[in-house]
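Let's practice the habit of predicting before peeking. Look at the sequence and jot down your guess about where helices and strands might fall. Then scroll down.
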Amino acid sequence: MHLECLVEERSIEAALTNLLPKILTPDVTWRIHAFQGKQDLKKRLPERLRGYKKWIPDDYRIVVLIDKDRDDCYQLKRELEEIASRAQFITKTSAGGAPGFQVMNHIVIEELESWFFGDLAAIRNAYPKVSRTIVRDPRYAHPDTLSDTWETRESVLQHYTYYPGGLPKIEVAQKISRFMAPERNRSQSFQVFCEGIRLCTGQR
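Done guessing? Here is the structure:
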């Protein structure tokens, strides 16, 4: 089994590079393709899927991962589903999760940073000067409901004297994801992603 992961930017690629081995069994191979932002991914996705359709083996799955940001989640998902349908792919959603699909579209609620706030212990391990009391802070109890998660993460790290000149997104994603443990993550969006990835590869 093999996964082709299409993501909107390199910070997501960096995070998935650390996370996929923690989610998947060793016999599953994968490759991540990072685009130049959300609009670039959406623009190029139809052609990319049509290209896949010409050669993709039965044991390949395509995962499209994109941030919700300020978009309407249902509209964004419908847009991705229509692109896959026009390329003549069966998606996880259209198949109702039953076997036989080859494309999984997943919307990150609301940004990748929500996944990081779902594992506050990982943030502390990556950045030890962050107070241990952060794991009990009620503001982060429901990470998928946080607004402006990028700005919140920047504020937290800069409060503890990290990156006063601004956060390097790729470096931060690499450092935090290295310490993340999927089973303890409180982001529902992340858990749904993990379940979908396992379903894609026949894991339970």
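How did you do? Residues 113-184 form one domain.
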